[in-house]
Every structure is written in C-alpha cells, then in structure tokens.
TrEMBL record:
PROSITE patterns: QOR_ZETA_CRYSTAL (PS01162). SUPFAM superfamilies: GroES-like, NAD(P)-binding Rossmann-fold domains. Residues 184-222 are annotated as: Disordered. Residues 185-222 have a biased composition (Low complexity). It comes from Nocardioides panzhihuensis. This is NADPH:quinone reductase-like Zn-dependent oxidoreductase. It comes from the Bacteria. It holds the Pfam family ADH_N. Residues 21-220 form the Enoyl reductase (ER) domain. GO terms for molecular function: oxidoreductase activity; zinc ion binding. InterPro entries: ADH-like_N, ER, GroES-like_sf, Lipid_raft_assoc_Zn_ADH, NAD(P)-bd_dom_sf, Quin_OxRdtase/zeta-crystal_CS.
Length: 222
C-alpha cells in the first residue's frame, strides 16, 4: 500500500469507525497520518491482529467500557486495531531501541491503517522466524496468557492449570505456554463447544494415553 503525500499534509488509507456496531460500522477511508510523540514509533503496518479487545471497542460492549473512557456515543479512537507487525517508518526523539527500517511487532493504536503509532515500550523486534502475519496475532493474547501464568498465577512445578476458554485467543497461548514451560503437570481445558480434558493438554494428547478423551464434549459446562 502506498501512502499519499500532498504538499499540505500527509494522508493514508485506514479502516475507520465513527459509531459502535458490527463490522458494518467499519469503512475504508483516507485520514491524516498520525503524529508521534518523543517516546513513540510510527510503524508501517504489514499485518494487524484482531483480538477480543478490538471487538469490544468496535461494538462498544460491555457498556461499562464506554463510561470508562472508550467513548460514550462512539469510539474516541476512530481507527481500530491494537496488535500490529510492520516496519519502523520514523521514531520520536527519545526512542533508543528502534531505528527506521527495523521489523517490529507489538501493541499500538490504529493498527487497521497503513501507518500506526506505538510506544517504544510496547514494541519488540520481530523474530526472523515469524512472518508479519504470525507476529501480529501474538502481542495482546500471548502477553495476557504469559501474565496470567507468571505474574498472576505464579505457577510452580507440579501445579495444575484449569484453562477456561482454551480454544480462544488467550487460552490457546495459555495451553502452549504451560506445556512449553513445563510448569504444570496437569492442564485441564474448557471452551463452550469443545472438549474438557484432564491429565493431558487437549491439543496434544499422548498416543495410547489412558487420559480422558478430548472428544468428551461438555458444552458451556466447565
Ligand atoms: N485485560 C486484558 O488485557 C485482556 C486481554 C485479552 C483478553 N482479555 C479478555 O479475556 C477474555 C478471553 O479473551 P480471548 O481473546 O481469549 O477471547 P476469545 O478468543 O473470544 O475466546 C473466548 C473463549 O471463551 C470460551 N467461552 C465463551 N463462553 C463460554 C462459556 N459460557 N463457557 C465456557 N467457555 C466459554 C470460548 O469457547 P468457544 O470458542 O467454544 O465458544 C473461547 O474459547 C475476554 O473476555 C477478553 O476480553 C482481557
């Protein structure tokens, strides 16, 4: 995508939302390129993730979020999208970890646009092993999963984990991280339509295991 430069100002293509609603509330438009503060980075987005929080902001639900500052009648942030991956376009004067041309991913503002703003602290260099599309679905959901397991859960070896919503954005990472870190000897998972499995991770049951079958359905009954 090419950003349109004019003598008077610089504009870019973006998905814009002026009212709450379903995906019909979104439309493609041209808006001004956002300005960055000293500690911020302007990222040319190659991919954007769609996390549950962005869905909340599109619909304006739960309503409490509107009172909490999201915008009462319509979203304050007209360009949605938080998760992003892309290439650094420019950096603020106080930014030290990134330079123009770096491949980055993280959490920003207005990711559903050609250019988006992110604080330096909310970005990381993109591993070469990840595509932009893969990297863009990591930051919010995987970060939340990591916080749940480590900062909040403080899991230790041998502890069990019950993952409610294991088929979701956050839960999928929780299952993988718990397995990867070997912090839990048992992982129980649950979602509204999929299985409840105890004694083994639901996504990688051992062959010949005597653990309960992941195909045991338990709709909405964790
Ligand atoms: N505070 C934060 O920073 C933060 C960040 C990220 C997420 N969150 C919150 O964390 C929650 C999960 O986020 P997410 O991205 O993982 O959402 P998601 O992708 O929509 O996943 C929701 C999960 O919950 C399951 N589920 C829904 N209703 C259920 C029920 N009645 N009983 C059992 N399971 C049920 C779904 O199962 P099915 O797929 O089978 O329906 C799915 O696995 C959301 O409320 C989100 O707002 C908070």
């Amino acid at each position: 995508m090419v950003t349109e430069h004019t003598a008077a100002f610089t504009r870019m293509r973006a998905i814009v939302q002026t009212k709450y609603g379903d995906s019909g509330a979104l439309h493609l438009d041209r808006v001004a390129v956002p300005e960055i503060a000293d500690g911020q980075v302007l990222v040319r987005t190659h991919a954007a993730g769609l996390d549950r929080g962005t869905w909340h902001m599109m619909t304006g639900k739960p309503y409490l979020m509107r009172i909490a500052g999201m915008g009462f009648k319509g979203p304050k942030d007209r360009v949605p999208g938080r998760d992003l991956a892309g290439i650094v376009e420019s950096v603020g004067s106080a930014v030290t970890r990134f330079a123009v041309g770096d491949e980055v991913y993280g959490i920003g503002r207005g990711a559903f646009a050609e250019l988006a703003v992110a604080s330096e602290a909310k970005l990381a260099h993109k591993p070469a092993s990840l595509s932009f599309e893969q990297a863009a679905v990591v930051p919010i959901s995987a970060g939340t999963a990591l916080q749940a397991l480590t900062d909040q859960g403080r899991l230790g070896a041998g502890q069990s984990v019950l993952v409610i919503g294991a088929s979701g954005g956050v839960g999928g990472y929780v299952v993988q991280l718990a397995k990867r870190r070997s912090t839990a000897s048992r992982r129980s998972t649950c979602s509204s339509t999929t299985s409840v499995a105890t004694g083994t991770p639901v996504r990688s049951p051992p062959t010949g295991s005597s653990a309960p079958s992941p195909s045991t359905t338990s709709p909405r009954s964790c």
